[in-house]
Amino acid sequence: MHRVLITDSLSKAGLKVLEQTPGIEVVIRSGLTPQQVREELKSVDAIIIRSGTTLTAELLEGQDRLKCIARAGVGVDNINLEAATRAGVLVMNTPSGNTISTAEHTFAMMLALSRNIGPAHASMKAGKWDRKSFQGTQLAGKTLAVLGLGRIGLSVAARARAFEMNVLGYDPLISEEKCKELGIQLFRDVDEIVTRCDYLTVHTPLTDETRGIINADRLAKMKKGVRIINCARGGIIDEQDLATAIESGHVAGAALDVFVDEPPTDRRLVDLPKVLATPHLGASTDEAQEKAGIAVAEAELRKLQFTNAMANIDQAISLNNTNASFHNTKGSSNPKPTLLLLLVQQLG
Ligand code: NAD
Ligand code: MLT
């Protein structure tokens, strides 16, 4: 029996895939402390997480039974990949299930920020009818800079083009031709792109290179009145530097779905009136959760099936070595390559 631990919410459809598979026992535990996660990991073959669980080197060390970590979502920055590799644990994610939902959330945030939807809504709910305080700006004709032109960045860029925005992009990997085709003006220098935009949105992973890519220096280079959106990862934009730039009036506002600490422990940025904030909701749609849940469950099962089959092959080989009569089709005395090939063909 393979035990699969789930510590963050997984869609019903994903759970069903696991629960209907013979030989799988699903263990659902939420709200665990790191110490409790460490304990639970000792008796499972696989774990499925979202962004609510952080798998540090300390938690992964000495986990002899664990074979696989599956992340229902894109970012694997909450998993210590080096420690997982050292422990021989495979890490998988579901890269495309939430692309559209996150792009739409980014757009919702950009529109809401521009039209003061958050404060106007709060004012109405407080019984007021204030038509003077919430004048906004329109998106058409404005320039949007997109840092990170991967799946989500490109989807945001396409939506911005439909809203008649001028779209600039920065990504070290995308080609000039692809950007031309999509109507995106490509920049290879962050310091230059930041000077040109009215709106800036980030869609890179959080890495050593991107942590603080938008900092005090770059904020100072931007046009006064720029608006900033982060629906990727907390920390890509330095939170304290952004708070200072908003307080000074240089940045007109920010829309943030992600934070360095979630929930944020330091409230300085979130509590600013010019900050529109959501609690990491980019991928929280029925559609994205269903897709990610099913994809992660299926990936997990494939990995466990593979591990099982490998163990069977090793067992078969060791039995036949004892009998000294096993030969593969090419006459070699080592049948493992042929058996592995058969296995890979069967698993597709
Ligand atoms: P992706 O891998 O398709 O795209 C990332 C892009 O960033 C790539 O094109 C890559 O070349 C680029 N990049 C890497 N380093 C860069 C750098 N230093 N400067 C500029 N560009 C750089 O990933 P994606 O699916 O588009 O996701 C992007 C981000 O959004 C990830 O951080 C992911 O975790 C986050 N995300 C957040 C939510 C949410 O709920 N808010 C949901 C999904 C994804
Ligand atoms: C992701 O990286 O896919 C997001 O953070 C989604 C999530 O876990 O909600």
Instruction: List the total number of helices.
Output: 13
The general outline is elongated
* Estimated share of beta-strand residues: 15-25%
- The Rg value, from CA coordinates, equals 24 Å
SS content category: alpha/beta
Helix fraction by DSSP (H/I, runs of at least 4):
25-40%
Helix and strand succession?
Answer: EHEHEHEHEHHEHEHEHEHEHEEHH
Strand runs, count: 12
Structure, described:
- This protein is of the alpha/beta class and about 350 residues long.
- It has helices at about 10-20, 35-40, 55-60, 80-85, 100-115, 115-125, 150-160, 175-180, 190-195, 215-220, 240-245, 285-325, 335-345; strands at about 1-5, 25-30, 45-50, 70, 90-95, 145, 165-170, 185, 200, 225-230, 250-255, 275.
- The strands form two sheets. The chain has a seven-stranded parallel sheet.
- It is elongated.
- About 35% of the residues are buried.
- Residues about 325-330 have low confidence and may be disordered.
- The structure holds nicotinamide-adenine-dinucleotide and D-malate (MLT).
- Nicotinamide-adenine-dinucleotide binds near residues 172 and 173.
